[in-house]
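Project outcomes to date are best conveyed with an example. Our students and postdoctoral researchers have been running inverse folding experiments weekly, and each run begins with a structure described purely in tokens. The record below, which covers 213 residues, was selected by the lab manager from last quarter's runs and is presented without edits.
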């Protein structure tokens, strides 16, 4: 996932440089900017702990609004409010029986990012993120002990409020913004830690296209 982030970020930077060279106009860095964006997440887990638990990544929706508040020409603050789908496709052993599970979690993500603006077409961002779990959907493929396993997952004490961190870049051409982000949670998905289901932290790569008003 980190290798993909580096490759796609390099491509965004190259495209932004090319587009900037083709345009005689640039977007001002010292005005308040409001916009909306939409795209997708490519998410998985890290720091997983469980009984023979293995997870693969999955795609999900990402979109919302953002606000850019300048602090001079080269710095600024960018809060965002996003609807963000994360999750994983995993397998393991629970209650002595093998299972597979596809989990989709829908979060309200609120990142508060510091902007570093070396040019009119490129903004580098990083900062903390608060996430609130709105909905969770599980699709099970279970073994002979399927009822007990499903009840174990349903009764899991899932954490609603999670803190994390995001970093990435915005490439700007006139009013269009192409964004790439890499994010990860600091906290695990469990609440009190008493469940037997896998413990994990979310991580994701996000690509969006936005429009500044």
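After processing, the design step wrote out the following sequence:
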């Amino acid at each position: 996932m980190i290798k993909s982030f580096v490759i796609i970020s390099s491509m965004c930077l190259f495209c932004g440089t090319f587009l900037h060279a083709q345009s005689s106009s640039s977007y001002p860095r010292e005005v308040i900017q409001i916009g909306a964006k939409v795209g997708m997440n490519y998410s998985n887990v890290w720091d997983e702990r469980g009984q023979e638990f293995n997870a693969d990544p999955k795609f999900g929706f990402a979109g919302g609004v953002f606000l850019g508040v300048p602090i001079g020409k080269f710095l600024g603050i960018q809060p965002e409010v996003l609807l963000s789908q994360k999750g994983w496709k995993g397998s393991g052993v629970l209650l002595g029986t093998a299972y597979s599970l596809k989990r989709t979690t829908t979060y309200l993500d609120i990142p508060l990012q510091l902007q570093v603006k070396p040019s009119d077409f490129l903004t580098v961002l990083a900062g903390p993120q608060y996430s609130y779990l709105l909905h969770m959907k599980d699709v099970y493929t279970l073994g002979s002990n399927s009822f007990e396993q499903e009840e174990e997952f349903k009764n899991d004490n899932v954490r609603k409020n999670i803190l994390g961190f995001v970093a990435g870049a915005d490439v700007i051409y006139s009013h269009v913004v192409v964004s790439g982000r890499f994010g990860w949670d600091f906290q695990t998905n469990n609440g009190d830690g008493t469940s037997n289901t896998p413990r994990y932290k979310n991580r994701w790569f996000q690509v969006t296209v936005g429009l500044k008003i």
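Helices lie at 2-22, 146-154. Strands lie at 33-49, 54-56, 58-71, 75-94, 97-116, 122-142, 161-173, 176-185, 199-212. The training component of this project remains on track.
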